[in-house]
Every structure is written in structure tokens, then in C-alpha cells.
Amino acid sequence: MAHTTDPSSGADQQGRGAHAKRDRGDKGEHTRTGGRGGKGLHRRKFLGGLAGVGLASVGAAGATFALLTDGNAFKAAAADTALNIPDLLEGTTADGTTTFALTAQTGTNEVLSGVTSQTAGYNGSYLGPTMKWTKGSTVLLNITNNLGDETSVHFHGAHIPPDMDGGPQNSFADGETWSPTFEIKDEAKTLWYHPHALGTTAEQVVRGLVGLIIVEDDSDASAALPSEYGVDDIPLVLQCLSADASGDVKYNLTGYLSAGNSYPVLCNGTNVDATTLGFTATKKRTRFRVLNASPSDILTVQRGDGGTLTQIATDQGYLAEAAEVTSIRLVAGGRAEFVLDLDAAVTLQTVVTTGWVRGGSGTYDFLTVTPDASDTPADLPSTLNTITRYDTSAFAARTITLGQSGLLMNINGAVGTTMDAMATIMTTLDAEEVWTISNLTQLEHSFHLHDVPFQLIEINGEAPTGTDLGWFDTYEVVGGGSIKIAMKFTDFADDTYMYMLHCHLLQHEDEGMMAALMVMDS
To answer: Mind listing the pLDDT tens digit for each residue in 18-37?
Structure first.
């Protein structure tokens, strides 16, 4: 492995304001031609000029996207199809441990309406059931691989031991069962699970191997928020994929660059290209947990009437207080939670921005929420969470570079397509560090850190504001830009098993933009 042993204390390499990142026209990845040529128009307004826009352009994403999509023009329409809600997986509890059973298996699903695609899922043909974990409890997962290929299952965002994290070192063969067990140390938040084996992550995720995890706790905020799954606590797994006319779902460069592809958008496994799903809210206040499970595209969620969403959580749990926002921008792998208090029907939209060589673009009415409730919810708590901002003056500093080597990607100059080749970041238990994630390319990246949550300290040289003051594990790094993040490595150390840090544009991950993180006893 290429080792990066010690954090450096060198000068901050950012030195550039967010407003310097507006011009993203010359991305040039893999010598692409014509930018995004060859994509068909979706039924909504075409937003081709937005692919890969810089963070400055989306710093006030609500105002930006409301203007570009003319949100008020899209009135809430009668729903065509009821929203499919993933099953809630029931565990069995004995001797203080709750056991869940998952089987990764192949199947079929209509990724394109009316066309059958070869897919995969957990305990079914597409996507997976939702699990509920409780802080302080112990879980055991018996996960059987019936895919016909090696896989792993990573618990994205969970703070668990590295030998249970589900990274490449935990890969297991077809026909085998992997049984990780661990205590839930996370507070209330929305996590997800998906494959993470070397070189096959994109292919297996786009086939449908995606599921949500809801972590519950006994906090006052959790007690005050909607929590009845499928009634007033609703999961929304959004995907923008690539498929040809026969329904073959694409996952790599060759597939994405082939002629005749379309870029379907799915919500909870149902294509919404020409369909608006419907949900009847039997409680006036409804909580939505949104995951961008796309391999690469950026998804922005907003109301079709231009109204606000009440955001209550980011990737890693509750915000300090609820925030009224006009939109929520999620890079690949990102999550957020919001609530709606409704007296009249509202249609939720997603604005798709191309994140890779090609991808989706456009605005989709994906869900109409129609209230049928007479209750009067209490006011939301004035405080949801206590977030103590890190004082990073004494934190050890290091720089992580995101680079490109021809058709391959790298971190700190090392192409991480094998465990031996990738860079290894060495740190110690209870270390406090501040990292500058520097994007040396002009490509979009979605930086994800396993093990612990991080706080944003700078975004392209500017201090975070609003919901960016929450906790994250995945965040956007625009071409030529940088973010500065701070974290503390708590609870778990291992001299054999490692966590990962990588780009969550899954094609970039498979092409080598991944490094290992080893936390050692101090």
C-alpha cells in the first residue's frame, strides 16, 4: 500500500472563494465529446446547462432551482400510482441481540416503464427492506449472498468496528453468509446499506442492492417527531440510472457512453419519468427520509408550488433546530430528513443534475402528498440537537487530494483499485484531525468518510452556514474546489481491518478514487 503515515501541518491549500467555482464547462473526463450530447429531453423542463455547477451556484440552491424550474408552474396533479413503501424488516430478539436476515439475490424490475430489466435486491427482486436499529442495542445480521458473484454489505454512515463495516475486506463469495454483530452507538439518523466490494460496487448498486436503516433513540426530539413507519415516517429512495431501450442498466464508462441510453428516475423502485406517485397522509405532519441512491447524479428535492420544506436532519442526524428551506441538494450517497405540515396537496419534485460523463437532467414531479387528516400536531421543538462546533486550532491537519490518472482516479496520487495499491491514512484512537479535501480535477466528486461523522469547516474557503452546520459523512467537492472537514476518531481501533474514504460517485470509486483509513490504538 501507499502509506500516508502522519498528518501534515502544512499551509492551507484552499485559498479560493466559493464564487471562483462557477465556471464548470471544461470538465473533460475521459475525453468526453459534446458534454452531454445524445440525451433525450425528459417530460419536464430541460436543465442541460446545470451539469456539474459549482458550489457557489448552489449555495442558495432553493432560490436558484426555483428560478430555473419555475416551480409555481407545476401544480400538484392527481397521482397516477400509489407510492411503494419498502417493507420494514422484522428482527428477532433473544438474549439482548436483535437478529436480521438478508439475502442478496437477483430478480427483475421495470427500470424503464414497460421494459423488464435484470436487477438485484435484498430479500426481493429490487431494493431492500428497511431496518430499524435502536441506540444502545446489539444487532446481528445474517447476510446470504445468492448473487452469483462476490459482494459485501456496507452500513453507510454507521459508527461500528472496522471489521464489521462491510468494506472490501469483508467481501464474501456467492453462497456464503456473513454475520456481523455490533452495538448501535449512533444517535437517531437515516443510514443505508449497499455493496462495497472492489470494482463491482457501481454494478451491484445500480442493479438495485440498496436499503435504508432507521436509527432510533430516546431523545426528546425523536419523541416529538413522526415515527410510525409507512404512516407518518416515509422513506424516499431516489435514483437516476442509465439504461438502454432493452432495459439493460449501465454502470461503467463503456455503458454510459453507448448510444441510445435514457436516464430514468425512480422513487422507491418505481419509474417516475411519466408517472407521479401518490401518498395519502393520514397525519397532518409527515416526516420524509430522502436518500440519493444514484450512482453519480445530483438530486435536488423541492416543492412544486415553490413552498418550503422543514428540514430536520442531514446525513448524520438532527440539525440543531428545524430549518425552512426551499430545496435540499443531495450528492450521490447523501441523505436528509424533512417534515411537511399540510392542509392541501403538495407535489414533490426532484431536479436532476448530471454528475458524471453523461446522466440525467430535468425536473420530475415524483410524489403528490394529499392530506386526509384532522389532527393538530404540536409545535416542533425549538431545539432538536446540541451540536458543539469543533475548535480546530489544535487539531492535526492533513490534505487529501482527489486526482485523475488517464481513465483512472486516485487519492493522494494512488489508484485505489486494490487494497495493496491504495493510499493508507494512518491515525490513532481519539485523534482529532482537520482534513482539506482538495479536488485536483475539474470533475464533480462526492466525498464519503467511513467510521465517524464530520463537521464542515470551510467550503471552497468560505465558512458553512445554515444546514451545512449539521453532521455529515458525504459531501460535494466541485471541480477545482475543496472542503475542509473536522472529525474525532472514537471507540474503534484495529491493526488489520480498515475503514474507507472515497468518492461516492460509484464509477469514480471503482476507477480508483478510494483510500484506506487505519485507526490504531494510541
So the answer is: 333 333 333 334 333 333 33
Radius of gyration of the chain (CA): 21
- Which has more pLDDT, 229 or 68? 229
User: Over 50: is that where the pLDDT of 75 sits?
Assistant: no
390-417 in b/e form (b: 16+ CB < 10 A) is bebeebbbbbbbbbbeeeebbbbebbbb
CA dihedral for 307, 331, 223, 346, sign (positive or negative) = positive
Query: Whose grid coordinates read 493510499?
Result: 423
Is it the case that residue 389 has pLDDT exceeding 80? yes
The pLDDT value recorded for residue 78 is 54
Q: Which residues pair with 459 in a beta bridge?
A: 462, 483
Instruction: Using alpha carbons, list the distances in angstroms from residue 522 to 6, 390, 423, 427, 490.
Output: 13, 21, 21, 9, 11
Contacts of 84 (CB under 8 A, 6+ apart): 268, 269, 270, 277
Q: How many CB atoms lie within 10 A of CB 377?
A: 16
Whether 149 and 108 have beta carbons less than 8 Å apart is answered as: no
pLDDT at 9 over 50: no
pLDDT one-digit tens code per residue, 168-202: 999 999 999 999 999 999 999 999 999 999 999 99
Average pLDDT of the segment spanning 391-398:
98
Nearest to 472 by CA among 482, 480, 460, 464: 464
H or E element at residue 329: strand 327-330
Q: Where are the alpha helices (DSSP H) in 309-357?
A: none
The pLDDT value given to residue 375 = 95
Q: Name, in order, each residue with C-beta under 8 angstroms of 56's C-beta and a sequence gap of 6 or more.
A: 17, 18, 19, 20, 21, 22, 460
Return contacts of 248-252, CB within 8 angstroms, 24+ apart.
248/117, 248/118, 249/111, 249/117, 249/118, 249/119, 249/206, 249/207, 250/206, 251/202, 251/203, 251/206, 251/207, 251/295, 251/506, 251/507, 252/202, 252/203, 252/507, 252/510
Average of per-residue pLDDT values in the chain: 88
Answer for the pair 340, 25: CB distance below 8 angstroms, yes or no: no
Q: What is the mean pLDDT of residues 316-340?
A: 98
3-class SS shares of the chain: helix, strand, coil, % to 5: 10, 40, 45
State the cell numbers at 268: 422507491
Q: What confidence category does residue 385 fall into, taking pLDDT thresholds of 50, 70 and 90?
A: very high
Q: In whole angstroms, what is the distance from residue 357 CA to residue 410 CA? A: 17
For residue 121, the SS3 value is strand
Residue labelled with grid coordinates 490518472: 405
